[in-house]
Task: inverse folding
């Protein structure tokens, strides 16, 4: 008996095999150009004048591949003219970073470091043998993903120039080309010229894939009929159970032809193979061109495509001319309709919620996108394992392999034109980019428009210029031309103007966590989206940082090295914390996961909210190094959250808990409402939900069930209430409340804390003070104990801004915009925390303690010194910080807290409990600090500023490092 999973796997394998078989059939007419090519760099643009196409180039290079992969180009230096903005140029000037600017130890923090770097012209050359049997055939040179402008010669004849970031470039060879040996010469130029899409566009920037030079996809010569299918586009109509097939035909100039076209189709990855009855129609070509439309009835039983059942068909179109010429083309498509209905998305008439991530073109082994289906299937399967169903491609369009893989996997895609027309460019101002965007998006839809996964499209990312006028016309153009997907002018932040005719919105504004106030799980984004009458998708949600994972560095075995990570690791060691790197990663990762969970849940409980695009599920290695992913740049887990754990709060169906807070006292009760967001394949009939409250040992304190209920496909489904009296809880305790839908994988859980409303009154045997006065020094000198509440008094560390939220994106890209920390690290087994239930990382009970609390910079403390509670600093500065520390001072013992902890705390149960725990510790025999610290060193915390502070040095990047595109 086959499981659904095994059947699905067999279908996928069959589908890939069919693709391979189809490719093999074509190879009878193909000559692969893979392998060794002759090569020469043309840094001075001498090649055309010198007619290099008629010479034998002196070097060799392997294609497909990039120059960097072949170790061609220039060495990386401080003078390298990168393609990409450098907003924090302090690296070039700060004395602290001087050692990373020296040859032999050059480490740049902005992005990954390629083996070589080159922007300019480069020549590639290969000899080919044209078979005699190709006489009378149309011969095409196909180059997948050259980067980016390509001029082609066959022998001494120039046959064309193409410039695109989005599709394969094809060049038709001369019709009179004789059989025998010929030389193909390519001139590839990767500079930004008149058409400037923006130096930070992910289609070319060094922030992501890198501005490489070469050809990285399939390369071949193909011979075929001189009468041929130029284009086939399939428009499914589910209501009529048919597909309209629009066909463009071509022949040689002034050639006429007529005959018959036959269409047939068959599903290929479904359990039962569905065959479509063939249909024929006459065609006519006049003056080399012809077109026709054919309605293809799909039969009474059709298989539709979506995330749950990604059923696909292959259309076979056969052309038979009366003069005997024949052509055949196969096209993959899915029967699906992706629409906006009011404020909701629908797939085949059923509501859909987009749970997405942004793909920023991070491919750290090659420096360019994966060109094979298997690599993209891995990415989409990992995304689905995390509960996602959608991917946006930030200012770039992936290769065809990505669309094939997304079709097979069942994944909704939003590719974009290759532009972030902002830094150094703009749209709507009459520049060449204005037409180029239309050209590129037309190339995208012609080549990839039949793929079912191609559901949405935008011009690109966050533009400058006369954008409203330009993008309104862009939307009108595409809505009139191709109804198979939805269009939004651009994916934008919250300050960008609204494009009025967007079919859906991708913008910020309704995202983020308002944790300046006490964390809760009731608020929504409803107010922020009420102005929109079309579906709303959150732009670049999340961006919560974690500390670098230095174990990741060994994975960089390809064209890139993680010199940025090397720099951060070396700097961490210089600040005496090398042994804490893994702990910082894990603790900051737990806070990151908590943030993602709460933001996603807030989105899921918001009425009329239709999706989010995380930035990003995996790390972004550019823009100063943005470690925002729960996965690394290789799509691997980092160790602090699994796909299964992430999926609990980011899935097609998610139980949600609505509570006003997560910290309680035992004279209260926990009152919660349960609801469900359900965007599954169909309504869940007679769903039975249950809940359980456990302590950390797993002991069940309370449990219950709700009445059975059918869950429609929507969110905000009200289930019922939970009431849990807390009066029996006498000591500080952490609990976990889990809600699950019985008999399914759908479950979710939340931690909460209960503290005694009245703590035992203790007569302190230590001196409590809020300043290191003479009395404090006297007591320490005489062997007594002191508790110093330094809240609001810290000078050394005053510049470090701590909130409960971690660093956003990274502190370099935003020039040290706060917050600067990544949560806290502590040891739960430390006796100082014996009466304060905690894990080793931030969780909700820490909010009232750490949010906006000062931190102390321990730059002058003894080597190896570790505080009781340690805020984790941004990895760009790696300051050794403390929130609570202990030390032997003089003959006495001291605890210092920069969080506000005192005997007079009111209505702050977690802070009161932490202070109580520290009191108990100070009056116990276990109070025995490990390190001795001079009184003046401690006092310096409240008197002297940090020795090293962040300085931008300049307001912009150095002029000599700025790309200089040619003026328009």
Result:
């Amino acid at each position: 008996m086959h499981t659904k999973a095994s059947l699905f796997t067999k279908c996928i394998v069959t589908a890939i095999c069919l693709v391979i078989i189809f490719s093999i059939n074509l190879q009878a007419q193909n000559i692969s150009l893979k392998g060794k090519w002759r090569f020469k760099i043309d840094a001075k643009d001498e090649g055309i004048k010198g007619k290099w196409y008629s010479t034998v180039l002196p070097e060799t290079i392997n294609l497909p591949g990039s120059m960097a992969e072949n170790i061609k180009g220039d060495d990386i230096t401080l003078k390298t003219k990168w393609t990409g903005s450098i907003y924090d140029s302090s690296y070039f000037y700060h004395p602290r970073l001087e050692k990373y600017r020296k040859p032999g130890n050059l480490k740049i923090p902005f992005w990954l470091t390629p083996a070589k770097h080159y922007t300019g012209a480069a020549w590639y050359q290969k000899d080919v043998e044209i078979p005699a049997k190709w006489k009378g055939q149309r011969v095409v040179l196909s180059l997948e993903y050259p980067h980016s402008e390509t001029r082609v010669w066959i022998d001494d004849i120039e046959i064309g120039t193409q410039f695109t970031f989005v599709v394969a470039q094809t060049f038709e060879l001369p019709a009179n080309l004789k059989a025998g040996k010929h030389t193909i010469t390519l001139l590839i130029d990767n500079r930004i010229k008149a058409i400037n899409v923006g130096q930070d566009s992910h289609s070319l920037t060094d922030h992501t894939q890198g501005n490489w030079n070469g050809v990285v996809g399939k390369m071949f010569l193909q011979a075929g009929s001189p009468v041929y299918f130029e284009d086939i586009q399939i428009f499914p109509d589910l209501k009529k159970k048919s597909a309209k097939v629009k066909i463009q035909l071509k022949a040689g100039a002034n050639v006429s032809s007529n005959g018959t076209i036959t269409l047939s189709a068959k599903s290929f990855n479904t359990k039962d193979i569905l065959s479509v009855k063939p249909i024929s129609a006459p065609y006519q070509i006049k003056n080399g061109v012809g077109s026709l439309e054919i309605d293809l009835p799909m039969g009474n039983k059709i298989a539709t495509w979506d995330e749950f059942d990604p059923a696909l068909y292959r259309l076979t179109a056969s052309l038979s001319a009366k003069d005997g010429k024949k052509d055949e083309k196969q096209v993959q498509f899915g029967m699906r309709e992706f629409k906006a209905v009011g404020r909701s998305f629908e797939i085949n008439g059923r509501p859909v919620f987009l749970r997405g991530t942004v793909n920023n073109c991070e491919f750290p082994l090659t420096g360019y996108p994966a060109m094979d289906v298997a690599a993209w299937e891995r990415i989409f399967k990992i995304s689905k394992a995390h509960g996602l169903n959608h991917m946006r491609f930030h200012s770039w369009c992936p290769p065809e392999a990505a669309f094939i893989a997304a079709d097979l996997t069942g994944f909704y895609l939003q590719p974009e034109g290759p532009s972030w027309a902002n830094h150094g460019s703009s749209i709507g101002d009459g520049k060449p980019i204005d037409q180029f965007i239309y050209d590129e998006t037309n190339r995208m839809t012609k080549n990839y428009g039949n793929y079912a996964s191609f559901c949405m499209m935008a011009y690109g990312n966050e533009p400058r210029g006369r954008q409203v006028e330009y993008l309104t016309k862009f939307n009108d153009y595409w809505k009139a031309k191709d109804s198979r997907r939805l269009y939004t002018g651009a994916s934008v932040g919250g300050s960008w103007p609204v494009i009025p005719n967007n079919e859906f919105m991708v913008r910020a504004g309704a995202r983020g966590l308002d944790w300046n106030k006490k964390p809760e799980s009731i608020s929504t984004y409803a107010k922020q989206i009420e102005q929109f009458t079309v579906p709303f998708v959150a732009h670049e949600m999340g961006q919560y940082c974690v500390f670098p994972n230095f174990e990741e560095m060994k994975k960089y075995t390809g064209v890139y090295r993680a010199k940025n990570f090397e720099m951060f690791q070396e700097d961490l060691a210089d600040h005496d914390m090398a042994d804490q790197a893994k702990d910082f990663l894990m603790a900051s990762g737990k806070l990151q996961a908590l943030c993602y969970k709460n933001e996603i849940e807030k989105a899921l409980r918001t009425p009329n909210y239709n999706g989010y695009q995380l930035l990003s599920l995996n790390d972004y290695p550019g823009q100063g190094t943005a470690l925002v992913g729960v996965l690394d740049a290789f799509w691997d887990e980092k160790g602090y959250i699994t796909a299964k754990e992430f999926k609990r709060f980011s899935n097609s169906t998610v139980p949600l808990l609505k509570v006003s807070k997560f910290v309680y006292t035992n004279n209260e009760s926990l009152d919660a409402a349960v609801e469900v967001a359900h965007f599954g394949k169909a309504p869940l009939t007679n769903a039975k939900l249950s809940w359980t409250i456990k302590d950390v040992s797993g002991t069940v304190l309370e449990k219950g069930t709700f009445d059975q209920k059918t869950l429609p496909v929507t969110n905000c489904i009200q289930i019922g209430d939970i009431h849990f009296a807390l009066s029996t809880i006498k000591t500080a305790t952490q609990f976990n409340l889990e809600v699950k839908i019985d008999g399914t994988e759908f479950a979710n859980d939340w931690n909460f804390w209960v503290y005694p409303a009245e703590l035992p009154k203790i007569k302190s045997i230590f001196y409590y003070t809020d300043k290191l006065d003479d009395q404090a020094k006297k007591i320490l000198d005489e062997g007594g104990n002191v508790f110093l509440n330094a809240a609001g008094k810290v000078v050394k560390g005053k510049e470090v801004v701590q909130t409960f939220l971690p660093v956003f994106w990274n502190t370099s890209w935003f020039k040290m915009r706060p917050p600067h920390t990544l949560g806290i690290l502590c040891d739960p087994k430390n006796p100082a925390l014996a009466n304060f239930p905690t894990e080793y990382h931030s969780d909700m009970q820490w909010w009232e303690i750490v949010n906006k609390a000062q931190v102390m910079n321990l730059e002058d403390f003894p080597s190896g010194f570790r505080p009781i509670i340690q805020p984790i600093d941004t990895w760009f500065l790696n300051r050794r910080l403390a929130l609570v520390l202990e030390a032997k001072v003089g003959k006495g013992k001291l605890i210092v807290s920069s969080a506000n902890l005192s005997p007079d705390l009111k209505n702050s149960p977690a802070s009161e409990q932490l202070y109580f725990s520290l009191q108990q510790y100070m009056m116990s025999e276990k109070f025995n600090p490990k390190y001795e610290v001079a009184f003046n060193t401690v006092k310096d915390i409240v008197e002297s500023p940090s020795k090293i502070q962040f300085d931008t040095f300049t307001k912009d990047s150095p002029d000599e490092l700025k790309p200089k595109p040619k003026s328009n």
Notes: The chain has five domains: 29-74+116-224, 227-338, 340-639, 653-755, 767-943. Residues 227-338 form a domain with the Immunoglobulin-like fold (CATH 2.60.40.10). Residues 1-28 have pLDDT under 50 and may be disordered. Residues 4-27 form the longest helix (24 residues).
